[in-house]
């Protein structure tokens, strides 16, 4: 395909010559792993158990405002959809060990297990650890002695047919900051990084981080964290398969935090799961099946923008950036990492540290930019047809219709765009 730049107006589309892609955002990345799971009917006799932990009162570094309230909120939402819930607050190291042992005793008899942890977590050398309230963590070598590894919980939950882990544990962490400053002062690497590290799941397990790996989540200005509020709200949604449900959680968190926080889901699940099932499930819409995420919502020169799209296999997407003055720049699909998710989906993403990135430059047009894609369910388009499609899509975007379709079968075109602001 020949790359081209376009200027769109209501009446005409003018091709701006040149095969070089404008760096209006050198391409935004987002290391976001999202998952896709299929969905099955939850049986009435299903044995559901949830371990919910809220650690707020840390002895060494002071109190976190929301984890206790977050744990209470999530516990009640899970009870309402048929889970037996064991909820705990301010667990020390012994307490974390005891609830892990209890979960191990229960695991062989469970059909579905949930772990929700709100509080502080830390990563060292790519391994994640949950921090009890009595931890001292004077040095990096004390992490394995004074914390409980996330891997310990995952190994127990691997025994359960369906397991779901929700980690609202990426809050700004004084322990990590202290250890990072310690390594900077003595010039030695401690293996400590902000936030939590990406992990590999096994079987029908879903792990959701409140924000991206190596990033910090918000505790929340109100009574609860953005992630806990969104999760508790959507758990009660009837007939929402968990993959669709978590997309809605992601959208809510990004909306509340102006794109600064994006949950990440990691999964290889093949089994469909519903928190709440009724007799008559509504069919999924295309908007539910397709995910587009562009973040953060606001960027300045030198910062990266991230893009992730999960699309049906029959969609061969064409990606574009549209500036406030309607200059359109194609983003070659070769710039994206592609992954087959199963269930008929393919993920396109440009991630931090990848070969290509979307980096905002001083010369880029300020204001509300839009990144997205369209795809035809029929034959491939010529360049002239693409210009016509873009003209029509631009008219829809002017009406704030960021997702939708134009035309009719067999030439129907689906499009999805998201907005971000260049400061």
TrEMBL record:
> Taking every annotated instance into account, which residue ranges of this chain make up the domain Caspase family p20?
46-174
Write down the Pfam families for this protein, in alphabetical order.
Peptidase_C14 (PF00656)
Highest rank taxon of the organism: Bacteria
SUPFAM superfamilies recorded = Caspase-like (SSF52129)
Q: Which family does it belong to?
A: Belongs to the peptidase C14A family.
| Protein name, entry field | Caspase family p20 domain-containing protein
């Amino acid at each position: 395909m020949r790359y081209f730049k376009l200027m769109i107006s209501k009446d005409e589309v003018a091709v701006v010559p040149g095969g070089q892609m404008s760096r209006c955002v050198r391409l935004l990345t987002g290391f976001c792993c999202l998952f896709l799971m299929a969905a099955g009917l939850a049986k009435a006799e299903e044995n559901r158990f949830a371990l919910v932990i809220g650690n707020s009162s840390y002895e060494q570094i002071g109190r976190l405002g929301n984890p206790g309230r977050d744990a209470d909120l999530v516990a009640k939402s899970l009870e309402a959809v048929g889970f037996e819930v064991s909820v705990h607050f301010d667990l020390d190291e012994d307490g974390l060990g005891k609830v892990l042992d209890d979960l191990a005793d229960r695991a062989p008899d469970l059909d579905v297990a949930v772990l929700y942890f709100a509080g502080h977590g830390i990563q060292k050398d790519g391994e994640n650890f949950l921090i009890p309230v009595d931890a001292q963590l004077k040095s990096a070598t004390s992490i394995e002695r004074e914390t409980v590894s996330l891997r310990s919980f995952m190994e127990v939950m691997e025994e359960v047919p369906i397991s779901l882990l929700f980690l609202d544990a990426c809050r700004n962490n004084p322990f990590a900051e202290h250890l990072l400053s310690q390594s900077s002062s003595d010039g030695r690497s401690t293996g400590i990084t902000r936030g939590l590290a990406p992990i590999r799941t096994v079987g029908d397990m879903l792990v959701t981080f409140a924000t991206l790996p190596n990033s910090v989540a918000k505790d929340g200005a109100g009574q609860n964290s953005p992630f806990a509020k969104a999760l508790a709200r959507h758990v009660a949604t009837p007939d929402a398969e968990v993959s669709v449900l978590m997309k809605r959680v992601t959208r809510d968190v990004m909306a509340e935090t102006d794109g600064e926080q994006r949950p990440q889901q990691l999964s290889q699940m093949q089994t469909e799961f519903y928190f709440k099932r009724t007799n008559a499930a509504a069919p999924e819409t295309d908007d539910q099946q397709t995910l587009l995420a562009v973040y953060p919502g606001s960027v300045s020169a030198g910062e990266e923008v991230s893009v992730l799209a999960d699309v049906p296999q029959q969609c061969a997407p064409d990606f574009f950036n549209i500036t406030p003055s309607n200059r359109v720049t194609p983003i070659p699909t070769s710039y994206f990492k592609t992954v087959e998710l199963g269930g008929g989906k393919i993920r396109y993403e440009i991630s931090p540290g990848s070969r290509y990135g979307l980096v905002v430059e001083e010369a880029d047009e300020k204001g509300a930019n839009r990144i997205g894609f369209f795809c035809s369910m029929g034959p491939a388009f010529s360049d002239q047809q693409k210009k016509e499609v873009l003209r029509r899509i631009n008219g829809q975007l002017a009406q704030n219709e960021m997702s939708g379709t134009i035309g009719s079968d067999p030439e129907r075109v689906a499009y999805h765009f998201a907005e971000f602001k260049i400061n």
